[in-house]
Each structure stands twice: as structure tokens, then as C-alpha cells.
Amino acid sequence: MKKLFENNRRWAAAITKDNPQFFETLSRQQNPDFLWIGCSDSRVPANQITGLLPGEVFVHRNVANLVIHTDLNCLSVIQYAVDVLQVKHIIVCGHYGCGGVETAISQRPSGLIDNWLRHIKDLYHRNLSRFSDCKDQRTRIDRLCELNVIEQVNNVCHTSTVQDAWSRGQSLQVHGWIYGITDGLLKDLEVTFDSQDQVPDVYR
Ligand code: CO
Questions:
Q1: Which of 98, 140, 142, 175 is catalytic?
Q2: CA-based torsion, 134, 36, 65, 152: positive or negative
Q3: Annotated catalytic residue: which of 39, 74, 93, 157?
Q4: Residue 63 Cα, ligand 1 centroid: separation in angstroms?
Q5: What is the phi/psi pair of residue 27, to 5°?
Q6: Per-residue model confidence as pLDDT tens digits over 123-174
Q7: From the candidates 9, 10, 43, 118, which is the catalytic residue?
């Protein structure tokens, strides 16, 4: 634990050396343009992989980057980011080799988390035909990781918060990205939404 505090003091000193007003300015307000919804996986830290400083990205992470309609935690983060911070972009970022996705289709019990991962099982089951040509489990998992990002982008777009923002003409884009743990690179899955026109009637 001592090491973490040492690291912290070194980090704060380095930032202050570069910009003596950095923390003073940030303490007055945060004004991020981005909301990041990502996996809790320790290898996918939002700020580091996008090169963003404190104050530049609002972050929500959970196992397998899920956006569930009844998850008050995630919904509250989205509401605060959109209504109060007025972020311009919501990024749902998954990653290849996601342990949550892998566990969801592993057919072995993992306890409490199986209830959370049930959302991914449902997604997999509903789209079984898309996996018929997968030659191995790795390919299947990675394809499901991508599909899961797209599903969660849709879920973000269907929230009342995002619907209301679009209704009142607020500029807001929702993106789906995936991160490669083996090469450190982000890929845009090109499922960007920026208006109600792209959403099925029933969700408007
Ligand atoms: Co993961």
C-alpha cells in the first residue's frame, strides 16, 4: 500500500510541475466532453488508453460493460453526464477476451455473477445463428464481445435520459468501441447514433 501513496505523491508533483494551476483549476469544476462506459477489467483503464487527463472523461465501469434498464447506478451516471455535465459523446467500450463474456458462455457456475452475466447469455442465445461459422471458442468470445458492445450502445440510446436529450435538441453522440488487450489499440465498431431517427419507434 505504501507504494501507491509514493506513486501518488510523485504523480501529483509531476502534474503540478507541468501546470502549477492544474488541481486548483480542476477543483472548481469538471467539464468533460466524454462519458466512458467500460469493463471493470484492470487492463482497460479509460484515461490511460485514450491519453485523457483527470477532468476530461466521466467514467462508469462494470463487469462486461453492461447498460441494464433497471441498473440505477449506470442510469444515474448517464443522467448526470448528459443532463448536468452535458457531455458530447457517450462511448461504450468493450474489449476482446472479456472474462465476463467468456464466463457467460462457459456453462460452468460462477456464483452470484451468473445473474449479471445472464444478460450476455440472453444476447448470445438470441443471436446463435451468427456464431455458426466460429471455428473456436476464442473467435466466438471475441464476436460476442463486439455484439455485446452494439447491444449496450442500443441500450444507452433507449434510456429516457438520452431520448429526452435528443428531443430537446441537445447534441449527443453514442459510440461503440472495442479495445484489443493484445495490442493496446481501440477500434471503432461504427455504430454511432446521434438522433432519435435511428432508434426503433417503440423506444422513442
Ligand atoms: Co471485460
A1: 98
A2: negative
A3: 39
A4: 6
A5: -65, -25
A6: 999 999 999 999 999 999 999 999 999 999 999 999 999 999 999 999 999 9
A7: 43
